[in-house]
Write a structure and sequence with these properties.
Layout: H1 2-17, H2 40-45, E1 47-48, E2 51-52, H3 61-69, H4 73-82, H5 84-87, H6 95-109, E3 124-128, E4 134-139, E5 148-152, H7 172-182, E6 188-193, H8 203-206, H9 209-227, E7 234-238, H10 240-248, E8 256-260, E9 278-282, E10 314-315, H11 333-342
Parallel strand pairs: 5-6, 5-7, 7-8, 8-9, 9-10
Antiparallel strand pairs: 1-2, 3-4, 4-6
Amino acid sequence: MRRYKRTVVAVALATTVAGGTAGWASGGAQRAVTGAPPGSAAWRAEGVPGRPLPDPATADPREIAAFFRTLTPGRQRELAHRHPSVVGNLDGAPVALRYEANALAIRAGHDPRYLRLAAPGRQILAFDPRGRGQVAEVYGDLTAAPRVSVVVPGSDIDAGSFDRAKDPYGTPAGMAVSLRTATGDRTAVVAWTGYTTPVGIGLDAATGDLAEAGAGRLARFTQGLVAAGAAEPALFCHSYGSVVCGLAASEVNATDIVVCGSPGMRAGRVADLRTDARVWAAKDPSDWISKVPNVEFAGLGHGPDPAGAAFGARRVPAATAHGHTGYFAPGTDSLRAFAAIALGESAGAGTTGESR
């Protein structure tokens, strides 16, 4: 009974401490945005001679990639212009076509919060204005780069804040740019805000509901990258984003799964993730996430610390990182290790341990 009470107390504490990128703030319940992108009904009603268009909700990214290969460039662009919100979010569709479609969709929406995303030179691989907004932006040449990484953020991130100037290394855009710069621009990096994140501290941050919804979207996104001709990516998962990556691990296409500032991955150890990817973990001594109890009870909490020895992940050094959002800051040992992993040079990334 005493042990039970300790567990309950720890879980209660987790609900008041487990937050995300922004840290100490209260938040309300969020409703996950899932399903097919806006405009899918009109897309389904159209077809090409003799066959329907692939269903955005059910078609495999490989099927979508194969379908677009049968179309002329002119027909591809015609579909993108007629259905920009669908084509821009079709995992498996040609990358350049998605950039074009999303620029059209953003401009057509006339939403002042997002018009900056349609500026020349921005490479928006996904955009969904529903809810608080979701977006994925690419830095580098996605289909030509020999190595690709995807940054998965934690709480308090959406289409309006994913590239904010304040606290840049706590945003997926800032993390992505910093990581690519650290590799000498030899990689392509995607800042992926493709799921509904928790806001502040509350039950959303202490449960896995939003992470479960995001995991399916992340798995499909990575499958779409590979289907469209990009290299299999390494995932860099921050804070609550590591919960998403843990739940998606068995389905994602990934060479590596790197978590930092993690409250847990909803797994007891690396083997429970059921992935062939190498699993890495970083946690700096000053990160407040250490105050989150590593428990999982009655749906609350996210399980053992991935940076703990018993979990079995390869340890990434983080002695010179500072706080919860300092892992991608220039000059840190964690960023140097991340760059080595992104480049496939894992011998220089940190402590090698059992990760299968």
